Amino acid sequence: MGDGARYIGVAERRARLALRQRLAGQARAGTPEEVAGALVALHGTDPATVYLAVGARLADPAGTVEETGRALYEDRSLVRMHGMRHTVFVFPTGLTAVVHASTGLAVAARERSSLLKHMATAGAPDAAWLKEVEESTLAALARRGQATAAELAQDEPRLREQFVYAAGKSYEGVHTVSTRLLRVLGVEGKVVRGRPLGSWTSSRFRWALAPEHAELDVAQAQAELLRRWLAACGPATEADLKWWTGWRVTEVRRALAAIGAEPVSLDEGTGYVAGGDAGPVPSPDAPWAALLPALDPTAMGWQQRDWYLAPGLRPRLFDGSGNVGPTVWWNGRVIGGWAQRPDGEIAWRILDEEGIGREARAAIGSEAERLAGWLGTTRITPRFRTPLEKELAAG
C-alpha cells in the first residue's frame, strides 16, 4: 500500500459498525426496508433471523413481525432469494438485478449443469424434457401466484418424478424433480421464496415468480454491489470481500478499481473503503448494547473478525460449520451470547468481562426485556445451534 493511506483503528471501526449497521440507539431505523437497505442483505437461511435482525435495529420493535411480513409478502419491497456464496438472503427488491448478475449467474450455470448431469447418469429424461417441465411449472406458478411444490405438481405431474442420485455410492439418494428444479430456478432468478406455511419462524415456504428485473452487465453489477457493501461495512480487506461475495480475487480487484475504492491501513493490513469515505467518523452519542440473532449479518459480515470478536469466544459462539449463534454486543464488540428458554425468558451470559460494569449489564438486561416483549408467546430455536445457546436454552 502506498504512503499516506489513513490508519483506521479498532475504535473507529466499531463506531462505523454501530452507526451504519443501525445498532447504536441514535441510528436505529423506522422500517424493515431501512434496515435491509442499510445492511445490503439480511441472512435468510434461518427464517427467524430476518425478523430478529430487523427487530434488533428498529427504534420501535413492537410491529416487527407485521411490518417485516408486509414488506416481504404484501408490498414485496423485500425479497428472499439466493445470493452471495449460494446462500439465501433477504434483499431490497431494487437490488435483485444487481445480486442476480453479480453473484447468481455463475452459480446458476453450475446448478443447471449439475442437475442435467445427475439426471443423465440416472437414465432420467433429457434437457428438452426438463425444459418443458420448467416452462409448465412457471406457467402454473404465474396462474397461482404462490404455491408449494406439491401444489405445483398438481398442475405439472412430472414434477413428482424421481431419479437416483449417486447410485452405488455411500451418499446415494433419491431426488424428486421438483426439489432440484425449483432450486435451479431459484438461483437462476426465476423464482423466489414466498409466504411460509405456518408462522414467521417456519422454514417451509411457498414459491413465487421473481420480480422482473433488467439483465445487467456482470462487471457493472459487481461494482455496484461492492460499492453498496463498502458503504455499509467498510473498511474491509480483500479477504473479507472475497469471502462475503464468493467471487474470485480478480473480480474483487476489478470491482474495487471500478468504484475508485480508497485503500486504508488496518491492524490486519490493507483495507478498503468506498471512494470519499476514508475520513474520520464520530463515535455514537452514547454506549450501546444489542442482542443479535444467529447468522446476523453484522456478526457474519467479515471473514477477519478479531476487531469485534475475540478468538477465545468462538468455540462457544459458533457451530462446527462456522455459523454464529445469538450474540451479545457492547459498544461494538461481541462479549457473550443469549438464548430463549421454553418459558420465553431471554437468558444471556457475558464471556468477555473486560470493561463490563453495571452500565453494560443494565443495558443488556434492557435489550433482553425489549426482545422478550415483542416476541411475546413465540419461541425461537436457531436452525444452527451452538454450545452456549444450547446451554443457556436448557436453563
Largest sheet: 4 strands, antiparallel
Strand order of the largest sheet: 11-12-13-14
> What is the percent of helical residues?
40-55%
Which stretches are low in confidence, meaning pLDDT under 50 for 5 or more residues running? none
| Number of separate structural domains | 2
CA-to-CA gap between the ends? 51 Å
Number of discrete helical segments: 14
Could you describe the 3D structure shown?
- This protein is of the alpha+beta class and 395 residues long.
- The protein has 2 domains: 1-61 and 213-395, no CATH class; 94-209, no CATH class.
- Helix content is 42%, strand content 16%.
- The chain contains 14 helices and 14 strands.
- It has a 4-stranded antiparallel β-sheet with strand order 11-12-13-14. It has a 3-stranded antiparallel β-sheet with strand order 1-3-2, with helices on both faces.
- Helix 5 crosses helix 9.
- The chain is globular.
- The termini are far apart.
- This is Winged helix DNA-binding domain-containing protein.
Keywords:
single chain; 395 residues; alpha+beta; 2 domains; four-stranded antiparallel beta sheet; three-stranded antiparallel beta sheet; 14 helices; 14 strands
Concise summary:
This protein is an alpha+beta fold and 395 residues long. Helices cover 42% and strands 16% of the residues.
What is the topological layout?
Elements: H1 10-20, H2 32-39, E1 42-43, H3 47-55, H4 64-74, E2 78-82, E3 88-92, H5 96-121, H6 127-144, E4 146-147, H7 149-155, E5 162-165, E6 173-176, H8 177-187, E7 191-196, E8 205-209, H9 218-233, H10 238-245, H11 249-258, E9 262-266, E10 269-273, E11 289-292, H12 314-317, E12 327-330, E13 333-340, E14 346-350, H13 358-375, H14 387-394
Antiparallel strand pairs: 1-3, 2-3, 4-8, 5-6, 7-8, 9-10, 11-12, 12-13, 13-14
Helix pairs in contact: 5-8, 5-9, 9-11
